[in-house]
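Consider one such protein record:
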Amino acid sequence: MRVLDWSSLDEAGRRNVLARPARAARSDIERLAREVIAQVRQGGDEALRVLTRRFDAVDLAGFAVEPAEFADARGRVTAEQIAALSRAINNVQRFHQAQEPRPLLLETETGVRCEQIIRPIQSVGLYVPAGTAPLPSAVIMLAIPARLAGCPTRILCTPPMKDGRVHPAVLTAAALCGIDQVFKVGGAQAIAALAFGTESIPRVDKIFGPGNAWVTAAKSLVAADPEGCACDLPAGPSEVMIVADESARVELVAADILAQAEHDALAQAIVVTLSRRLAEALVAEIGRQRAGLRRGVILDRSLSGCRAIVVPNPETAIDVVNTYAPEHLMLQLQQPRRWLREVQSAGSIFVGCWSAETLGDYCSGPNHVLPTDGHARTLSGLSVRDFVKTIPVQEVTPAGLRTLAATAIELAQLEGLDGHANAITRRLEALDVASAAAKPGVIV
């Protein structure tokens, strides 16, 4: 881990120290994703078989997980693991239930009734990557808000293991979350299948879930295609920024860095600290703890992109946070809630030294599908709101029309849209005719 002094860096140096890890050439990734999408659109299930053989080294006769495999998976998961999954599901459900959007109804003017109604997205595709580890936690984070939103069709795609089955923990989590349609397809080909449909896999209206660079590229491509489907937020390699002062415990900061770094070779951990002593102590502490961890190859690569930035005061630390806009932000300060008020851009925030980011990954309640690559400046993490549509409704009485008519006509004329004004004047004329024809005492 490099230790750098923020005050000694010029603007270019500061941009460089906050740069995300370099990735493979974007043009090559997009080209391959585009080729895969075209194959699936043209070849359907047969193309999926070819691509699964090519990328996953697995021959599959069919892609749907049958009931017998669900039952077998449940038998391969221990009672303790099921209890842990169930507790995580309960906490995630409780948090997401509290954030469900609500209908509303009000009168903006007398006789002008405005509503907001909530409707679920009718069919959603949930993508759960496999990569170097099974991710039942990703199942929970996608499936629970989809279920709470009331999406009628919920389809999950995930890559098969080498034996042609889905990891039992992933299938068990899916069953516990009410998902019974699971397909053994991964990568860009899964995104294409969900977006356009095949003989086996139904087309969906929106795709959710993280993935590698090819999955991310495929999601962007299908979302831009008029015949494709919508996708959730962009999600790249995982990242954490830890703001720590002299009160922070070196062993806990080091553990949080390693927890993040073991995700992926491109994962990034940055410490912003007021204490040079802490920054220098981290180097040795990370080495000690890293020796006992299993994902050594990944850690060797990801730790090379980690760094500690020494800043002169907490205000500067928060400025760095808001500039970087981390996916995960950890505040390990003497008065963390004092500085929470100043944070403007972060995917998810962990306040105090006992709030391990690991808890957010698995079981505390908030969603772990979060914006990366600085997108936290403008985007939020996944929630029930992403699985529903809010639809405004307006109902205007004759009295309400008369009240707002002059305003609407004036604005229509201001914009040069006389057809808009005509739609109002025609209604006023119709009201006048109806009023003239009405018998005395009859309300029209």
Remarks:
- The chain has 16 helices and 14 strands.
- Residues 126 and 156 are 5 Å apart (CA to CA).
- Residues 397-437 form one domain.
- The radius of gyration is 27 Å.
